[in-house]
Specification:
Blueprint lengths: L1 E9 L6 H8 L6 E8 L5 H11 L4 E6 L4 H11 L2 E6 L5 E2 L1 H16 L6 E10 L7 E2 L10 E2 L18 E4 H6 L12 H6 L8 E13 L8 H6 L1 H14 L8 H25 L2 H17 L1 H9 L1 H6 L3 H19 L3
Parallel strand pairs: 1-2, 1-4, 2-3, 6-10
Antiparallel strand pairs: 4-9, 5-10, 6-7, 6-9, 8-10
């Protein structure tokens, strides 16, 4: 069995996938790289096959009809043979020194027969054209160098949350919680992070800047104009997060509070994008989203609606919406939202 499986969801990635793969090869044969070609029609297919031929004990190329990012991750989970599982998008990469430290730590878990359900590490926003690289760190809220539980964490700050880039899961946990991401849907990384959290008991935080999250392509799914065009998919994921986990059933108060926090952030992002679009139709969708949350979970609704972020995104009238947008722009600059 491999120590770590890394799935690389890939769709028309010929311009940048080599950089991603090369950054992961230093893991050697303890790691398997599952390049999932999700219906590409460029040279991604050829690149994946060439790496599989050159590194047969490390790289596996999997070709499938286009199903979207979520289905590529699903395929990775189905094919993974590693004890632990990580998603690295094809336009991102990892830091070599931090990567080797991650593997060393995972190795110790296996050797000492002390498996953890989730490892958390830092990630860096590699924004094109930005001199200052913001790092999402967790050293102020998570214990370091010990295995801990949800009861040991502190409260996360408003702009601080777990993303796909910052976590790796125990592979079997993902299978046991029956994680299946929807096909042909963007922004499912929120579901990938959120859905398994209630099954996580043992956690480890490694304070290294491991994942490099590239932001800058005009066609990138997290580009704001692209997100507004695909707002229905953002709303779909937002609603699925509400439906997937009944927060009142979460036994740990701190985990419940964190999951509420993450849902609040996703809902604020959905709402701001709907406001930013400037259309009456999308303002209607914003009202419908809040109505949906209220009908599903009144406690969650009250936390979102009447928290300070919720109040900010629900200021009345055109002037109120302009204030909301200005606050969002400030958050983008200082918090690192895309």
């Amino acid at each position: 069995m491999k120590l770590l499986s890394v799935v690389i969801p890939s769709y028309n990635s010929q311009e940048y996938i080599r950089n991603c793969i090369e950054s992961l090869l230093p893991g050697g044969e303890e790691v398997e790289l599952l390049i999932v070609n999700d219906g590409s029609y460029d040279k991604t297919v050829e690149i994946a096959d060439n790496y599989a031929l050159k590194y047969p004990n490390i790289v596996k190329a999997i070709h499938q009809d286009n199903g979207g990012h979520g289905e590529a991750v699903n395929t990775g989970i189905r094919n993974a043979t590693g004890t632990y599982f990580k998603v690295v998008d094809s336009d991102d990469w990892v830091d070599t020194r931090a990567y080797l430290k991650v593997l060393e730590t995972l190795r110790l878990f296996v050797e000492d027969n002390q498996p953890v359900d989730m490892m958390i590490s830092n990630f860096v926003y590699e924004k094109e054209g930005e001199k200052y690289k913001k790092v999402m760190k967790y050293d102020d809220v998570l214990p370091e160098d010990v295995i801990f539980s949800w009861d040991d964490i502190k409260d996360f700050r408003k702009g601080q949350y777990l993303m796909m880039h910052s976590i790796l899961y125990r592979t079997q946990l993902l299978r046991e919680c029956d994680l299946k991401l929807p096909k042909h849907t963007f922004y499912v990384d929120n579901l990938y992070v959120y859905t398994p959290l209630r099954h996580v008991e043992k956690i480890f935080y490694l304070n290294v800047d491991f994942y490099r999250y590239f932001i800058g392509r005009e066609d990138q799914s997290v580009n704001e104009s692209v997100m507004i065009r695909r707002i229905d998919q953002q709303i779909k994921v937002n609603k699925l997060m509400v439906d997937h986990v009944q927060l009142e059933t979460i036994e740990s108060p701190k985990l419940q509070r964190y999951m509420m926090h993450q849902l609040e952030i996703v809902t604020v992002i959905s709402s701001i994008l709907l406001i930013r679009s400037g259309t009456n139709e999308n303002l209607r969708k914003k009202r419908e989203l809040m109505k949906f949350i209220k009908e599903r979970d009144l406690v969650l609704y009250n936390n979102i609606r009447y928290g300070w972020m919720g109040r900010l995104i629900n200021l009345p009238g055109r002037f109120g919406r302009s204030i909301s947008v200005c606050a969002y722009k400030v958050s983008k600059r200082f918090v690192g939202f895309n």
